Amino acid sequence: MILYDYFRSSAAYRVRIALELKGLEVEHRPVHLLRAGGEQLEPDYLAKNPQALVPALELDDGIVLTQSLAIIEYLESLRPTPRLIPQDPELAAKTRAVALAIACDIHPLTNLRVGGYLAASLNASPESIEAWRRFWILEGLQAVEKLIAPKPFCFSAEPTLADVCLIPQLFAARRFAVPLDELPRLLSVEAASLELEAFKRAHPARQADAE
Fold it and tell me: For the chain, what are the domain ranges?
C-alpha cells in the first residue's frame, strides 16, 4: 500500500497513527501542499484524489481510498485488532462523535484551502486568518473537552478513533498558538498518547518530509 502523505497534515497524521497502532507498513509518498503551488494540484495526483487533499491510500490493486476516517475504517476492517472503534454500541457512537467533531467540524474550517479562500476572495489579512483559526479550534476543543472521559485515553484504557483524531488536532492547535491550559482532560489524554511508540512514530517531526 502507498500512503500519499504530508507531514503537517492533521488528516494524514490521523492515518499514520492508525497504521502504527495496527502495525501495518506502507510506502509513504509525500505530497507537499505548499511547494510549487501545491503538489496536490498536479494532474497525476488529481487523478488519484480529485478533491486535491491528503491523505490518500493506494491499495496493492491500484484502488485509491480517500478521506482519513474512511481510510481508518478500512484499516479497522483489514486488521481488527487493536480495535479503534469499541465493540459496545454506545461507546462506539461516542467515539465516532468525538472523531467527527474534530474531523468534520473543527479541522475543515482551519485548513489550507479555507485560509487561501479567505485571503484571495475576502481580502482577509494573515492576522485575521490566524484569529479565525484560533477561534474555531478553541471553540471546538472546548466542546470535545466536555465529551470525553479520560481512562486515560478519551474513553478507555486503550486508544480509540477519538484519540487518533484528537492528538493531531492538538498539534495543529499549538501551531496556531491556541491556548490549551484550560483543557485539562484533553491535555491528560495527549500526555498518555504521546507515551506510546505508535504516536511517537507518527508525529510530524519524525516524518521523512518534515521541515
Answer: 2-82, 89-199
